[in-house]
Amino acid sequence: MRSRLWEPTQGPHALVIGGSLAGLLAAKVLSDHFERVTIVERDSFPLSPQPRRGTPQANHVHALMPRGRLIVEQLFPGLHQEMIAAGAPLVDMARDIAWLTPQGWGVNFNSGLEVLGFTRPLLDFHVRQRLCANPAIRFVDCTEFLRLIPANDHSVGGAVVRIHAANGESVETKLIADLVVDATGRASRAPQWLAEIGYVSPDETRVNAHLGYASRLYEIPKNFNADWKGVFVQCAPPIRKRGAILFTVEGNRWLVTLIGGGRDYPPNDEAGFLEFAQSLPVSIIYDAIKTASPLTPIKVHRGTENRLRHFEKLGNQPHNFIALGDSVCAFNPVYGQGMTIAAIEAMTLEDSLRRWKTSDRNFSRRFQRQLAKVTEAPWMMATSEDYRYRETEGGGVNRMTKFMHSYMDEVLRLSTRDTNVRHVLLQAFGMLVAPSALFRPKVLKRLLPAAFARAISGKRQERPTSADPVRSNWPIRVNN
Questions:
Q1: What is the DSSP code string of 159-218?
Q2: 3-state secondary structure of 471
Q3: Quick one: how far is CA 147 from the chain centroid?
């Protein structure tokens, strides 16, 4: 997919390091503010919707939450319908997903909160196709980033890269740029890059619940009939550390991801995969796949720790070098936040470029501080839930974490029977509202009486067990 490099005299130039979704969305935003945008990727971009080596997590279930879907559609009008035309089903989060929370099945109703069912390569491919049609953007793949080029005015002058040719030869070259964006993801070496040219590396916060995934695609049996398009069996740590997601995706296929926390990793062998699925507290996923035909090998992934790099706290940094996406804040993928956060960050970049010039000596610092506000609430929610695992490393459980655990237990318990509470919960999960919406009077007036009555009675909601009947405890559809 590699295209030739720009001529150095062709106008203001933005350089994006990394062809991740965060990098692709950032490139689209940058193309409205720079005459030239170059996306440099170490990997080779496929010419069809196929997984690539540089995105090992792409083999697993991905979710573009409602807010993320709205932003992507804003950046690429018509992409939503393109995805549907390519076979991605439209899914109502409450009506079409059988969702077993740690407190029981989420109540089933028409919520109007919709997501698309697709494999990650399909989305990436369609976004790349749109960017390829943009005359301001060029891709340079099979190209390794080596180092930043320092400048004398607290800025960087670009980067040195090594371009690998198809015949095995390689050549180093300089890419001069007015803005350099790091979107290389979890593997980012930005702290080292900055240290090499005399800047202080950002501090890091890590929280690791030691989750692992095993995924594969299945052909949906022709005679299969169900009233759901997806199933989500949440883990319920510390007692129940296993979960799974089954999602209908393009091509009349199921993408199944098994989840194990606290080092209870799902296996990658045929018998072990099915045994793990059968061990879940309900058999709805196992019953679906036990006779279905696998279409791919089992892919495993264990790089799931939450990692936050505090670029916003750096007192001295190049004013024209920024980092975003997983290069800054990488979440445990089980919460499905990554792609939507990347979309929100792209709009944060748009806002920053519109308000400040990149020549502003504080541009990078302003942007990173604004980005830190974007990731603050998702980070708190993800790490708070990960602290339910006894095996979690990094940080610690404080009073606020314990309160959040208790409060969210009550919200989930109420969401098994109250459509209003579940609608707000799904809005927060889909990032359409802030997590603080779960503390609004609309929720509190329903939650507090129920919690008080339960405390008085001393009774505890029983969690589902492996003996629970599957269909009888899948919630009755509520028409609203």
A1: EEEEEEPTTS-EEEEEEE-SEEEE--GGG--HHHHHHHTT-PPPPEEEEB---EEEEEEE
A2: coil
A3: 27
Burial of 56 (C-beta count, 10 Å sphere; 0-12/13-18/19+): middle
User: Last residue of some domain: 301, 321, 345?
Assistant: 301
Residue 181's contacts (CB-CB under 8 Å, 6 or more residues apart) are: 14, 15, 16, 17, 23, 26, 30, 321, 322, 323, 324
Question: H/E element holding 26?
Answer: helix 21-30
Question: How far apart, in whole angstroms, are the C-alpha atoms of residue 126 and residue 252?
Answer: 19
Q: What percent of the chain has pLDDT over 90?
A: 76
| Model pLDDT, residue 471 | 37
pLDDT at 474: 54
Among residues 276, 301, 326, the one where a domain terminates is: 301
Give how many domains the chain has, as a whole number: 2
Give the Cα-Cα-Cα angle 148, 150, 154 (nearest 5 degrees): 120
Report strand pairing: 137-140 vs 36-40.
parallel
Residue-wise pLDDT tens digits, 266-310: 999 999 999 999 999 999 999 999 999 999 999 999 988 999 999
CA distance 51 to 301: 14
**Residue predicted with more confidence, 70 or 304:** 70
Which one-letter amino acid corresponds to residue 345?
E
CA–CA gap between residue 234 and residue 173 (Å, rounded): 48
- Whether residue 6 is contained in a domain is answered as no
Q: Given a cut of 50, is residue 404 above it in pLDDT?
A: yes
Q: Which of 69-83, 265-279, 440-454 has the lowest mean pLDDT?
A: 440-454
For residue 463, how far is the Cα from the chain centroid?
28
Question: Would you say residue 463 has pLDDT above 60?
Answer: no
Does 475 score more than 70 pLDDT?
no
Same domain, 93 and 111: yes
- CA gap 160, 173 in Å, rounded: 6
Cα–Cα distance measured from residue 359 to residue 147, given in angstroms and rounded to the nearest whole number: 21
| Structure confidence at residue 190 (pLDDT) | 96
- 3-class SS shares of the chain: helix, strand, coil, % to 5: 35, 25, 40
Q: Residue 465: what pLDDT?
A: 40
Q: For residues 249 and 183, state if they share a domain.
A: no
Indicate whether 409 belongs to any domain: no
> 461 pLDDT band (50/70/90 cuts)?
very low
Q: Residue 469 pLDDT more than 50?
A: no
The strand pairing partners of 159, in sequence order, are: 148, 175
Query: H or E segment at 127?
Result: helix 120-132
Q: What is the DSSP letter of 362?
A: T
Q: How wide is the angle at C-alpha 87 spanned by C-alphas 185 and 141, nearest 5°?
A: 35
Contact 310, 202 (CB under 8 A): yes
